[in-house]
Amino acid sequence: MLECSIKSNIIVFEGAKSMIFTINQLKERYSDYANPLDKIKRDCDAGILFRLNRGLYEDNRHAEPMYLAASLLGPSYISFDYALSYYGLIPEKVVAITSASLSVHKNKTFVNFFGRFEFTDIPAKAFPSGTIYVYDGEYAARIATKEKAICDSLCKWPVVRSVKDLKQLMFEDKRIDEDEFASCDFEKLLTLASLYHKTNLDLLIKLIRKEYKHE
Hints:
Elements: E1 3-7, E2 10-14, E3 20-22, H1 23-29, H2 36-45, E4 50-53, E5 56-58, H3 69-72, E6 76-78, H4 80-86, E7 97-101, E8 108-112, E9 115-121, E10 131-136, E11 139-144, H5 146-156, H6 163-173, H7 178-182, H8 186-193, H9 199-211
Parallel strand pairs: 7-9
Antiparallel strand pairs: 1-2, 3-5, 4-5, 6-7, 8-9, 10-11
């Protein structure tokens, strides 16, 4: 079984056949070469290494992008449209890997071999709650639960002023599946929504209490 450690927000799996490397790890790996940086560049040109961001590389061209996102910017976790699609809450296949971040203060976007990665802050009080880890072999990713993904998205979407407008935003404009929404854990939704102190989330609480009979 692989052992996992976290180093500067980078998930490193000891003993893994493929993994994310920092520039310093690669320099050590290529220390027998006269110029390790030239070797790294040659490997990138040859498709042996893939640059994720400055000083960060992946050696598996088939790595699933969602498992790379947190290494680009941390702390962060998968959320918003990508998580909504992952749980079947919206019908669209989402191309960009969307993540919730903390204290970045402005949206961040990274584009590399594996795709487009977008990061958006959410309130600090809401950030730690409502996430899980998912695994794929030697990779791991932190992702919002379906309830947290809804709350994060409502924090990001345009502000509405009534429960009626909220329903239109969620079920018509953003095409959230009403049956999937009805299968949510509403106790969790109520607890999470109370952490944001945002108008849309206050309206979500009212919607749940009014139409889903949760006090």
